[in-house]
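Throughout this chapter, every protein is written as a compact record of paired, labelled lines. An example of such a record is reproduced below:
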Amino acid sequence: MVIFDWSATRSRIARIAAQASSGRVFGASSHEWKVESPLSSEDLAELEAQLGVELPGEYRSFLLYCGRGGAGPAYGLFPARRMGRRWEWEGDGADLTDLDQLSTPFEHVEAFNPADGLPEPPDEEAYDSEDAFNAAEDVYWEQHDRVAYAPEHSVGLLYLSHLGCALREALVISGPARGTMWADDTADDGGFRPLLDEDGTPLTFARWYQRWLDLAEAQVAAGS
């Protein structure tokens, strides 16, 4: 299991939050630099038993030693919460995670767009009336959305953050890309793609989070 040292993370976030320019960081007005309390080992064991899969090590250690969610990339890191007897994640798009399918492998290692191969949208000039064109366009987008938003494309993904405009980022829980972060750009007709570091390597959860923290520190320091 991959363990990451999160011991300095909360203090780094507190130092950023104390700076007058901290509000300039994208998404800060949403998460307000607050990190929720970590999970206990008992909570985590219960959560993983419910999911039927062990979470990737870097994220698992974040939950145990840093926090269950809060301050993080974009509008923040979706927190894990117990809702009655069931554990869930809370946030704009967290419901895209199929909690019963997280142990099912996400089979992809390269970017893909489920809408590739669909026909082009209807051309208004090919129709005799606006009503006929509108009817054809409705049929087209219904078909497009059935394919592009089919839930089987995101099995094995745990949605953790949103960037606005229905664009989200998720952690691969199961499959060959386990432990890496992916973007879901379906709302922008862009499909799914792995998030990459500056050198082109896939971002693991820890690198994704730490890169955001590094950039936030630099931005706040420049604005001080």
User: Anything to note?
Assistant: The longest strand covers residues 157-162. The domain at 9-114+150-223 is CATH 3.40.1580.10 (SMI1/KNR4-like).
